[in-house]
């Protein structure tokens, strides 16, 4: 398997899952949003299987890098994680986001085609839907992306669907993740964002180790049971297993398919704050501040299709997500590189 973005949060956990399940993996990453140390950790966690991991440093938009990988290693399928993913940054740097996310996908499928590999699992996002009218969200809910990042994901899905329509023989699965959180239970691998975290769980993790003073709760006047935003948090190891299930089922049907990966359960900011406080053994400082622009009240997946298509379902609950995230942060308070921003 070729895994692009292998050193990133979801890529690194997926590499461990694939390696320990017996796959050979070649990773590609340019470390624009990750540390080379994540690769050492993958090898450490996957211990006995570490010799099945190869790695090539480079940019997925660089066809020479990709071409060399395909020329030297048999690639049965590709899992394409490499992308830029910060919603706020995408609003201020749209050109960089369109360039990375769209061009990496285009170059990748061109090189895949050249080498006869036509099986691709693509990282998409529940955020392609924008604000939804019907919950839980099914795969055929309207796509109304509200920011450049989410538009790149929706555009890539359309490019891949057009490719499949034009060229029979491709098998492409777009996995639409809800809110991935947590860490490998070893505490060796986890989420290590650069700079100030944008997302709730990594921010809470950094409050818990004293790198941030307090959590800002973005609004408590939403039409939800406790007034705070509700999301479908999914343990990153469940997500990793979802990718393995996708690879195992990608041959079942030709063409393009989209599959939601979520739990089907909504959790509010307050509930997550309480669960994380329990995991780290102390109440965490927080303040309610106004809503964050662009946020919606509630997003929850309908995972029925994933279970039917992939034979997969999530196994880990909120307490496990918080326990594992805390274990990673406790053992790596400054992240992989120890510095911490
Ligand atoms: P991440 O930033 O931790 O990982 C992405 C990896 O890709 C990083 O290691 C980065 O260095 C690498 N990368 C970026 N551009 C590259 C390029 N041009 N060439 C080579 N490597 C490159 O992000 P993540 O959370 O692991 O997300 C993985 C994928 O899942 C992304 O496509 C993201 O958009 C998608 N996704 C993430 C979430 C989430 O909340 N984490 C939710 C939905 C979808
Ligand atoms: C979750 C909840 C916030 C931070 C984003 C992307 C989406 C996907 C996942 C990539 C919301 C609240 C947050 C904080 C808070 N990524 N919050 N204080 O916005 O659901 O989704 O990540 O595809 O595309 O949009 O995730 O973790 O930022 O927010 O109160 O400091 O936590 O308002 O209700 P979000 P999030």
UniProtKB/TrEMBL annotation:
EC number(s) given by UniProt: 5.1.3.2
Pfam families (UniProt xref): GDP_Man_Dehyd
Stretch forming the signal peptide: none
Reaction(s) this enzyme catalyzes, per UniProt: UDP-alpha-D-glucose = UDP-alpha-D-galactose
Entry cofactors: NAD(+)
InterPro entries: NAD(P)-bd_dom, NAD(P)-bd_dom_sf, UDP_G4E
Coiled coil: none
Family (UniProt): Belongs to the NAD(P)-dependent epimerase/dehydratase family.
Any one GO CC term of the record: cytosol
Pathway stated in the Swiss-Prot or TrEMBL entry: Carbohydrate metabolism; galactose metabolism
Domain NAD(P)-binding: 2-324
MF term (GO), any: UDP-glucose 4-epimerase activity
Name of this chain's protein: UDP-glucose 4-epimerase
Subunit structure: Homodimer.
Keywords noted in UniProt: Carbohydrate metabolism, Isomerase, NAD
Cited CDD domains: UDP_G4E_1_SDR_e
Biological processes per GO annotation: galactose metabolic process
